[in-house]
Design brief:
The structure is a single chain. This protein is 78% helix and 0% strand. It is built from twelve helices and no strands.
Length: 381
């Protein structure tokens, strides 16, 4: 039997089996291998994110004050820079801005909370009566629906009203009060140092990155500060406008407790898209009990119109340059934040999502080459 011949007529050498390293290398270089590598990388990033989020949730007394201070510092930074540019010492500019903002915020928020707490029992009674009238209309109206879920929902709402008095008693208890005081003090301290030494802190954190990445990291930090500051200022203005619209409608319709109801709408306005409308449902219930179904329907129309005015006009005007996130992403961020950290999570979810998207876009940008340098003229030209 003739041996295998090569094309040049010599005997062909038997092929050697590929080594284990070569086979493994080929396995990871085909299409499935590259997809597997990407999947492993994605799972590693998700695992790291899960560890970070889990660690942050376990220490809310530290995490929440730091995040709140970071957001407030971003909103107050323009005032500090304005004073420093006019010759004020940095520490004096920070202290002055800090005290002014602290006094104004404490006065506004404290006044609203006090106003709502004074009328909490009345609001709870009116809301419960409104729920009863809604259930009666649903079960005895033209459609005549009967559902055990309606009874269950009313029962849960009554328990909430009886046990929490619309959140008026949520601040009771030595432990809760101590945590609130400690968190407020820590927020104030962290906010002061963020305003005073923010650039040094940022430079220290970015200094751990490779030199080639520090430029984009500084750019991402600058853009994130702009996003956070614009978000806080825009949200404050939009919440105030929503509250004024609802207050005007309630006063025209002569709905009682108009000012506390508008204050509730103002507080709910800090949760985008659904906050003001959800908080305004209390005004609908009060109008239903005190003024009847037609005024309640008018209040509902006012709430929906205010929501659309906010979504299509106010948000693009006040936050169009800083909050370029689709509404679906905002809703998902709100759901995730509320699931992880309750009301505080819902308040912080959207600005954190906006910052995350800003950082991702900045890091994903490709550096555009600059113009070619102009050659110096030749000697004697």
């Amino acid at each position: 039997m003739k041996p295998n011949m090569s094309p040049d007529g010599s005997a062909a050498q038997p092929s050697r089996p590929q080594s284990f390293t070569a086979r493994m290398s080929f396995m990871w270089t085909d299409g499935l291998g590259r997809a597997s590598i990407r999947a492993i990388q994605a799972l590693s990033v998700l695992a790291l994110a899960w560890v970070v989020v889990s660690a942050a949730i376990r220490v809310p007394l530290v995490t929440i004050p730091v995040l709140v201070a970071l957001i407030l510092a971003s909103a107050m930074a323009p005032a500090v820079r304005w004073l420093a540019a006019r010759g004020w010492p940095r520490a004096l500019a920070v202290l002055s801005s800090f005290l002014v903002i602290l006094v104004v915020a404490a006065g506004v928020v404290g006044g609203i909370i006090a106003l709502v707490r004074q009328q909490a029992s009345v609001l709870a009674a009116r809301a419960e009566a409104g729920i009863g009238q809604l259930q009666q209309f649903i079960t005895t109206g033209p459609v005549a629906l009967i559902s055990d879920q309606i009874d269950a929902a009313r029962s849960e709402f009554q328990k909430f009203l009886a046990g929490g008095s619309l959140g008026a008693d949520a601040l009771t208890g030595l432990r809760t009060a101590g945590e609130i005081v400690a968190g407020s003090v820590l927020t104030a301290v962290v906010l002061f140092f963020f305003l005073k030494d923010g650039e040094k802190i940022r430079g220290f954190l970015i200094g751990f990155l490779p030199g080639t990445r520090q430029g984009k990291a500084h750019l991402a930090a600058e853009r994130s500060i702009v996003v956070l500051g614009g978000y806080v200022r825009g949200t404050l203005i939009i919440a105030a406008i929503d509250a004024i619209i609802v207050l005007a409608g309630l006063l025209i319709l002569q709905v009682p407790l108009a000012v506390p109801l508008a204050a509730v709408v103002f507080l709910g306005g800090f949760i985008p898209i659904i906050g003001a409308t959800t908080a305004g449902s209390l005004a609908v219930l009060v109008a239903l009990v005190e003024n009847g179904p037609v005024p309640a329907l008018v209040v509902l129309v006012i709430l929906v119109a205010a929501n659309q005015f906010e979504h299509h006009i106010l948000q693009p005007f006040f936050m169009g340059r800083v909050l370029r996130i689709h509404g679906l992403v905002i809703i998902l961020a709100l759901a995730a934040g509320a699931t992880l950290a309750g009301v505080i999570g819902a308040l912080l979810a959207v600005p954190l999502a906006a910052v995350g998207w800003t950082i991702y876009k900045t890091l994903a940008e490709r550096e555009t080459p600059g113009p070619e340098p102009i050659a110096p003229p030749a000697p004697g030209a």
